[in-house]
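Progress report, Aim 2. The chain analyzed during this reporting quarter is listed below.
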Amino acid sequence: MSQIKIYGMPVGNIGANCYFIVNEQTNEAICIDTGAEGEKICQLIEQNGWKLTGILLTHGHSDHIGATQYVKDHEKVNVYAAKAEEEVLAQPKLNLTTMFGNTMSLQADKWLEDGQEFTLAGVSIQCLLTAGHTKGGMCFYLPKEKIVFTGDTLFCQSIGRTDFPTGDLKTLETSIKEKLYVLSDDTIVYPGHDASTTIGYEKQHNMFVRGDIK
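Predicted structure tokens for the chain:
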């Protein structure tokens, strides 16, 4: 039985998914996409006695980064994001914080590259750069557990919008086919919004990017 458990909750008015990867042997945790409600996130960490070891950002949009600085300062941890997303995180017009009246500029402590592998909380993580929703969107793949966190790249029977700054539909389709659909069909997908799914299900049922179409 895996020592890793996944906890998720929607945060903010748009209901972005905030996830925790928890190593039950050490009680260490990783948070993915601290989008809003920083006090609620930190309260959950405290109630469970988790030791937060890092914050991973799938991309730089407001609904996924809104509480990042709060949680970082409260828990004293590093923020990880794709190097390709540096400009989006830094510029309010690109990260859409101006749209929601909460102008924000954010810098990661650790910049990640496509294909990079690293370990946090005893969990091996592989970085998959999946540009298209934003130019530096990144999915986080746990190969041992066959789990991937896809942010706003791939949803259950849907894909991320490409009409925001730095978005591109063709690039997103290519990213999904070449980076995600090559994973095993039983890989569990935890997206940035709505319900979880699997790679195999999306290859068969996602009308936006079918797995059998080249």
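The two ends are 37 Å apart (CA to CA). Residues 70 and 209 are 36 Å apart (CA to CA). These observations will guide the mutagenesis work planned for the next reporting period.
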